[in-house]
Fold these 2 entries.
Entry 1:
Amino acid sequence: MTATTPASLEPALLEVRGLGVDFTAPDGSPVHGVRGVDLTLRRGETVAVVGESGSGKSTTALALMRMLPGNGRIVSGSVRLDRTDLTTLGEDELRTVRGARIGMIFQDPMTSLNPVLTIGRQLDEVLRAHAREHDAGHRDRRARRRRAQELLELVGIPDPARRLDDHPHQFSGGQRQRILIAMALANEPDVLIADEPTTALDATVQEQILQLLAELNEKTGTALLLITHNLGVVARSCDRVLVMYGGTVVEDGATADVLGSPRHPYSAGLLAAVPRLSSPSGTRLYGIPGSPPDLSLPVVGCAFAARCPSADAECGTVPPPLVADGGAADVRRVACHHPGGSGVTEVPRRVPSEVPVGAARTDTVDGGAPLLEATGLRKEFGRRARGGRRDPLVAVDGVDLRLDAGETLGIVGESGSGKSTLARILVHAHPADAGVLKLRGSDVTRPSRAALRALRQEVQMVFQDPYASLNPRMTAGRIIAEPLLARGGFEDRAARRRRVGELLTQVGLDPSAADRRPRAFSGGQRQRIGIARALAPEPSVLVCDEPVAALDVSVQAQIINLLTDLQRELGLALVFIAHDLAVVRQVSHRIAVMRHGRFVETGRADDLCDSPREPYTRALLAAAPEPVRVPAAA
Amino acid sequence: MTSTVSSAPAVRRGTAARHPYLAALTTTRARIGLVLVGAVVLAGLLAPLLSSHAPTAQSGRALVPPGTGGHLLGTDDLGRDLLSRLLYGIRTDLEVIALAVPIGALLGCAFALLAAVHPVLDTVVQRAFDLVLAFPGLILALAVTAILGPGRLPVIVVITLAEIPVFGRQLRAGILVQRERDYAVAARVGGTRRARLLIRHILPNCADPLVVQLAVSLTVAVFLEGAMSFLGVGVRPPEPTLGNSLSQALPYLSQAPYFAAGPLLIVTLLVLGLSLLSEALNRETRR
């Protein structure tokens, strides 16, 4: 490997040119995961690759280290690390690069550590693997242990000497991610690739990890390539950003420029679609219409053309090259025929909803009984500690809530706060262990069979995961018809079909969708089917458990807008559960912050976000990353 | 209202539309399996046409080598035509297996569904399964034969009994997993009744491992029948089966190796074919 280069400008450390990756679909047809990606990373730089699922960002990262899964292969381009082309190296030579010169951090810290080995052992393993390349030698076991201890210290694990002998389960999620970062840094790599390092973590922990990565970048000079879907994370931690869409880079430039004044319509749309914590309750979100491209089809022209407001005939036929857009090359590049074109400028502006949703029912019929009322709800899950001692997990611990007709109650909490369990109690998927649940004033905590049937009509649920919540063996039509059958009155096939068609139209799908199975739909479309199913019995309460957590940002906005539209049209009361405070603020009238199974703070959405009383709420607010510091006011 | 998002949702092309079982059956692995199993089954079905002698008719010329005196595979120690005995043996085997395995599978599934209804029933059914599984297959075979006497019936009963817990356990495990999935909870919240939830929603999603198990169980059944007949507790002679042909050939192994070759080859082909099929199904459904 060449070590010295003439110090002209700053030499690129990692240079990717025209990278193309194909996957082989199960039926043998090629899927173009990545096409013609250019990327330059300089020493000590932090670069983010942003994109939605299927944009090719993770594939690019894996391709850099030649770690593509078995059905993927690099079909074009080069990856140069200090002038060595990694795409032509043999397995043995690659091993000297992986883990030594390029370190990698993965998304899920819970599964990326071996549960039966101590942390010390696992760090030792990494150090030993590359001991030969180090001159000083981590050959001596004690030296390696010292280094491991140093590393833990570096990533901020308290009392590292003792904790080296602990197993992964003795660490929290955030700590495990720290340990993985320590492992990636063990051999002082030049490049650290972090693939969605904070996606599996809670907002407050995410913040800490990002800070750690920034600090390490400063301290060790390791260049950081951060792969993420979260624009807020980018804004917080990276100098430069690449926006990817449909396997291509659509925009590349300094973070402040790209996020401040996006030139590509996709970047602009994506930015506009991100819910901002600073926007008041009732702000309508902007969603990019349509769904991401099908990568198995050959793409002619711009991948974004089908969803682009300013697309014309040229966009549909000629793929736009990634060219410098004003100023020197390498500073700002956009792949668009009409950069910053007509349609784009209007896009990012947020449309305030025509009817201010909040105003309509700030003081709803206070005299009447609330639609849904809970007092002292409690739920325990039987769990045993070591030695068979009973050690129940209290998921929901005395929750009081009240929901009026047509109102949205947002519930925010981090993972493990009990919000999903609460949702399931509200819809009677689990019985509550204690407390009283009242629907329209009548006690339905332990309903009789008949009462439960009535209740199933009134209270419905939208689930988090649109992939798991639809029966893969049934067509969309049958899935939506299930509650109709259960409720009765739709024994006639034609009538049922008609109603299913109506429901599909209501959620923005074509009635012909009824004959297809869930897997034929994209994530956003599946969630629409889930909503149609929930609407089928004509409920008055809709409990939405993280309805957009599994969706891409541009699609997330579509679903949230659909829910608020439906609420206005049908007068639904919504319980909207999410971990993202920004999303919750925009849809909710009132917000409850949940922690350890309790509501720590409840209040009007804007009041709670603008002047939180509890420290925990303040921490949550502070941790929510904003893509742009000051939101561009219309 | 939001506008209609797309008139045609992105339908994935190719295999996505095809049923995975069909896709599995078109793989090379499965095709070879199908040919092997098909050939053996066909040989059994066409036994009356393919053989020139009755399986029990004695010609008076014992242990003639293949090809002599109109006996294509030769004769056995009692002068019976080996080819006819082989073909009719396949027939007997297939009849027993084709009856016993599906019955065992159905009963096993029925018990598993029963167990899913209530925790107490679950315990009862599970312990009953344990009881059956506690006996090794052959001990069970001997015990059943001791009660019922030798013949076809005990073979069917033994295979059925052996398969019930296998399928029961398999399905129960599937139900326990699927029951907690979001779609099952969604159906419950939607008001779907328990029986319907179990049969229309959960059962189809548990089917994949059962189909694979069916192919595996057929393989096991071939062995079990063979072993029972070999020990003389199965189908009664002179009726030929693959197992008793084999046991009959054993004393003459050095003298007349062709005697044992036929049944051995057929059992091998059948097991190989079924294994290839189950493997192909398994791979395709695991995707």
Entry 2:
Amino acid sequence: MHESILDYGRYRYLWVALILSIGSLVAYLWHDPIGVPNGGTWLGYTLGTIGALLILWLLWFGVRKRRYSGASGSARGWLSAHVYLGSTLILIAFLHSGFQVGWNIHTLALALMLLVIFSGFFGVYAYLRYPSLMTRNRANTTRDAMLEEIRELDQQALALADKIDRNIHDVVLRSIQQTRLGGGILAQLRARDDSAQALASLRKAVSTAGASAKADAGSQTMVMMVDFLANQASDAQSDNLRRLIDMVSRKSALATRVARDIQLQALMEVWLYLHVPLSLGLLGALTAHVLSVFFYW
Amino acid sequence: MKWFIRRVVRKGKGAVQYEEEIHFGETLTIGRAANQAIFVNDIRAALEHARVVALGNGRYRVEALVAAGLRVDGRFEQSTTAKAGQTIEVGNTRITLVDPPKDFEAAVEVALVDKAEVAAREQSEALPQTLAEAGLGKRRASWTLLLLALAFGLALPLAAHYVPTFRALVKDVPAVGLNAWDTGPLAAAHHTMARDCQSCHGEPFEVVQDDKCVACHQNTLAHADPVAFPLPEIAEARCAHCHRDHNGDDGLIKDDQILCSDCHSDLSQRVAGKTQLLDVGDFGKAHPQFKVLLPAWKEDGSYAPQRVSMDQQPLVERSGLKFPHDKHLVAKGVQAPDGMRVLDCADCHVAEAGGALMKPIDFEAHCQDCHRLDFDLRMPDRQVPHAKVAEIQYMLDEFYAKVALEGGYDDVAAPLNVRQRRRPGQQPTPQEQREALDWARTKARETTDALFSSRTCGVCHTVSRDPSAVQGGWVVAPVRVSGQWFEKSDFTHAKHVTMACEDCHAARESTDSSNLLIPDIGHAGALAGDPPYGCRACHGGEDHAEPGQLESTCIDCHGFHQAPFPLHTTMGTKAGGEP
């Protein structure tokens, strides 16, 4: 049976995390410190030590995952522990500080830690959801194969358009030049592709060509326009036109899938561009936090 | 117009061959149609794709005839002006504008675009398809955030710690410099030091030292004699063991029971034989019965109250006064000169200004209205002062001497010259004076005896006769009716104003002044019964408080810094070498 990062080892690390959380919570509720709960009580120091060690261990995952094999368990097991113990940190950190916050390096470390964890939550969602969406979207092919097919369709469409009408050729040529797949960060995340626009401009060109014969053709659906044109032109022409529209539609569908593929891949990766730098920021803030509280003990 | 067209034909292995031709016409047409001046054999070219117009001086007008446009120097253009040296691309064909040779107005060079070049350009023009290709990176951002966090959290505060000028510069900037290290607001009393960390924090990586506290708190007393009780908990404990700052409104004075009970719950073992204090822990369950300070006097008359447990039986208060509370508090009132007067506690017992203790009872203010100190039926307006025996005697001696010498005192027992009113200007003879003064001395002595023996003083005071006493032999027992009953606690009436007096003091039932009306420790649940209640009726401890009881901890009643010794830090264990 397939095990995800969540149910790895029969939820082994969920149990570890739960035991750690409940243990910390019970200790916090049982503990009756001098004054209010804060990081300076013995429990505060204890939870702080546990939290700091956890953070260092979680950071070590960045090193561990680069080693494809290791004596210390599978990468999936490490990731499962990373996710569950990382989530536990939210509770441990707040119990450590006694829920005290302020405008200082200590709360900055807390804020960075929360940002890292919540970006990680998105990562868990992405890893659980997007791979299957990607597989489905690719439909047993690869992105390179789809791009190659688009290139071939472009050439064929151009040749076909040339046989129909020079205006149609122009429109197809321009749409090929304007095909944009991928792009900047936002473009990738928005899954932008211009294929629909290309199809629309082709429809417009077709209808303009037909408009000279009948004025209301512009508002017709494409099939009706094709039918209309087919009536106007020879059988060979109408057949070409059908094939052209078919090709451009197919290209449009392909382009949409490629854009979606790029989008899913970007979504799978984008959180890491927050998660990793923020975790390094957290390492800095944590170092400063620990050193400062003992510097001014 | 005469165009010079040179075609570059590549023959494999790098060999190049040129074909030259001349074209006549205003424009140079480019396209896939057979009639074009420059024929482009590529489906990506329109039949009539573009045209070039020579403007002279090596300048050309380049115009696309289809919406797809054409590349000029690699960029798609619809219509532009170009000059010699620039290139036009349509499909697979590249047309380079060149300076016309002699006898020509315009010239171009035509070549096929190299396939490797096309592939390279496609590569470079391809849009990024991953975030990494789009320029997103982790390494630089990671280093930046790491260094920023270290700079903000470590470098700037350290700079502020070591460089006074920088410290002064950023002192008031929130979250910058040492403010970034601030773990929380200081207690209100310390707010003036909020921007001056080093007023408390001294050496790096060293806990806050007591000498920093004592720098201001010079008059704070020790908890116990540090020589008699050289316990680590007293001698070595830091101020910050109890007083922990940076917790804002939580304040510095901690009421946690454990701070006391960790030593006092088994104090008798810790300091065996050195203390008279009893073991004490939680007020609800582990506090001994109160010890009350009962009035007592030594043989020589000096006041020496005795501290006795309230469990002691019988528990008798020897105030020196005879005072039945019940007779004064009867519901119908007491007979006063102006009629019946209903007395209440507050008619006599008024709190001091601070509200802690009660003001002493004042005879003149509280008693004399009814308990008049008159002494002579013939002079009902005159009273003796509420004073010492000697003063009363002086007053009576002087009073009767004046009466005797003035005469007119209507008493059959008096000599005639005392009874007769003297006329103005009439001087008594020396004989008469002596007789009168003899009578006066006797009269004063008799009156004194009458006052002290029964009639007046004895109502309240215990009066005895001691022939050896200097003033007529009368001795009034010393009196103590108010003061502090519990010397080890800081009880205050002010915090108990919601209670009625009788909730704690059973005065209405007290028939005699020997009844001690001070409440003892009591027991939990007493509120369900009748008053008077002991303290535990309302107060429980931190660990053992019944529902509805207050969780009172040690410092609600007791002080800590109360021993008459300076704090151990001022003893010089640090500064002065050997303690």
